[in-house]
Design a protein that fits this description.
138 residues, alpha+beta, two-stranded antiparallel ribbon, 2 helices, 8 strands, 41% strand
Amino acid sequence: MARALIMLLAAVAVFAADDPWAKVKELKGGAELRVYKKGAAQPLLAKMDELTDDNLMVVVKSGQVAIARDQIERIDYRPAAGRVTKETKSKTTDPDTRPGPPGSGSPTPGTSVSSGIHVGSKPDFETIYKRPAPPPKK
């Protein structure tokens, strides 16, 4: 009995590794998706909500939409990446010790600090799911 259970679990693990739908299940809610549906000219741009064995639930501008698994040709997702980087620069100036008229130079060192942020571009979409090819007819 224990041996049969181990073999069953191993078979399920192998199937899950080959199941492209399992990869979609690993996506977090809010992930950006591009969903290609059967017969549609343009992909649907949406955010991931939840996934069942039969449906992909996404959020679009008009609200939540359920897309049947058998209607999906391909799903692309945009990987989450840190697009915003912070930068701080600090500069120290030496005192001006040259002789000259009063007030012409600074007798003490100075420091200036500047900071800013840089917003990079979004990463490209990557394909996470493609409808498996149907088995050949006999």
